Amino acid sequence: MPHIIVKLWPGRSEEQKKALARKMAEAMKEIMGIEDKSISVAFEEVPKEKWMEEVYRTDIIGKDNLLYKRPGY
């Protein structure tokens, strides 16, 4: 606990994903007081043409009550 899943369009480098995973883990440790050994981060690449169907409708609109940061689109 916790497991963080980042859904994004393809095209980011492995270095970018690793850097983001490190920053997210650092923030979890600092803000939530969680040990590094308990944190996992995964990336799911979703093609742009499938974003509305696979992410926006299900994870954003469908779970609006869970969002703490809403997109501006």
Q: Summarize this, please?
A:
45% of the residues lie in helices and 16% in strands. It has 73 residues and is an alpha+beta fold.
Report what the structure shows.
This protein is an alpha+beta fold and 73 residues long. The protein has a single domain, classed as Macrophage Migration Inhibitory Factor. The chain is 45% helix and 16% strand. The protein is built from two helices and two strands. The chain has helices at 14-32, 48-61; strands at 3-8, 40-45. It has a two-stranded parallel sheet with strand order 1-2. Helix 1 (14-32) links the parallel strand 1 (3-8) and strand 2. The longest helix has 19 residues, at 14-32. The termini are far apart. The mean pLDDT is 97.
Mean pLDDT: 97
Radius of gyration: 14 Å
The description of the largest β-sheet is: 2 strands, parallel
CATH fold descriptor = Macrophage Migration Inhibitory Factor
Uncertain segments of ≥5 residues (pLDDT<50)? Answer: none
Listing every helix as H and every strand as E from the N terminus to the C terminus, the arrangement reads EHEH
> Level of helix content?
40-55%
- Largest beta sheet: what is the strand line-up? 1-2
- Total helices: the number is 2
Termini gap: 31 Å
Q: Please report which band the strand proportion falls in: under 5%, 5-15%, 15-25%, 25-35%, 35-45% or over 45%.
A: 15-25%
CATH C-level name: Alpha Beta
Count of the separate structural domains = 1
Query: Structural class of the helices, strands and pairings?
Result: alpha+beta
Q: What is the architecture at the second tier of CATH? A: 2-Layer Sandwich
Q: How would the global form be characterised?
A: globular
